[in-house]
Amino acid sequence: MRRPMVAGNWKMHGTRASVAELTEGLSNLVLPSGVEVAVFPPALFINQVIDGLAGKEITVGAQNSAVQPEQGALTGEVAPEQLVEAGCKLVLIGHSERRQIIGETDEVLNRKFAAAQAKGLKPVLCIGETLEEREAGKTLEVVGRQLSSIIEAFGVKAFASAVIAYEPVWAIGTGLTATPQQAQDVHAAIRGQLAAEDAEVAAKVQLLYGGSVKAANAAELFGMPDIDGGLIGGASLNADEFGAICRAAGN
Ligand code: 13P
């Protein structure tokens, strides 16, 4: 059985004060046992959030990490080694905002993925198609290519210690959620692609859905057989809403 996971990607939101308030709200949540709960604050606030959540069963991750595992001369980046020392367990790799706005390529993302794993930081690989690609019938091709990039470079066993988040770009921050069936179809294809290489890895890997998940639609999405939880943007900035999404994953 795969453990459900609900993760909050705070993106570039927050001030010291708002982060303190959100962290306090998270500390007070009653979380369902059996659901892995994680948050990804901006790098600047990782220490603050880790301190604020001390003793709470919430994992903290980073939204990005460097292409090399160790600290060194790489201005503006944060090394996996440094994130691990701070107490991070997870890192988002390849969020569509970084692919599209920062221009991160599959090649760069492969290096980040490997650098993270080299230090025991578990990558959450984000993949997904744009609206244009979906309308052109290319969804499975695009998502398949993003996944193949890692498989070809490191082998399918790399996903024995990684998570995959399917986030259709057209559903991110738009209020347009994929229907549970649309999301399930892509999740099944992702698991099928992994299963063609290694059935055990495919059966165990957690596949999260992301894109306008909120408390009102979470249970329906998480009820699908290949959807093991969610990667939540906007709705994760409200502790009570996020808590309700976590509870939906526990049912
Ligand atoms: P929203 O939940 O705000 O649509 O964002 C999803 C997302 O990009 C999570 O990484």
Task: Give, in order, the helices and strands.
Answer: EHEHEHEHHEHHEHHEHEH
Shape: globular
Number of helices: 11
Return the CATH topology. Answer: TIM Barrel
Q: Estimate the mean pLDDT confidence.
A: 97
CATH uppermost class: Alpha Beta
Instruction: Give the distinct bound molecules.
Output: 1,3-dihydroxyacetonephosphate
User: Any idea what the radius of gyration is?
Assistant: 17 Å
The side-by-side strand order for the widest beta sheet comes to 1-2-3-4-5-6-7-8
Segments where pLDDT lies below 50 for 5+ residues?
Answer: none
CATH homologous superfamily placement: Aldolase class I
Number of domains: 1
Based on secondary structure, the structural category is alpha/beta
CATH architecture assignment name: Alpha-Beta Barrel
List the helices and strands and how they pair.
Blueprint: E1 5-9, H1 16-27, E2 36-40, H2 46-52, E3 59-62, H3 80-86, E4 90-93, H4 96-102, H5 106-118, E5 122-127, H6 131-135, H7 139-154, E6 163-166, H8 180-195, H9 199-204, E7 207-210, H10 215-222, E8 229-232, H11 239-250
Parallel strand pairs: 1-2, 1-8, 2-3, 3-4, 4-5, 5-6, 6-7, 7-8
The chain binds 1,3-dihydroxyacetonephosphate.
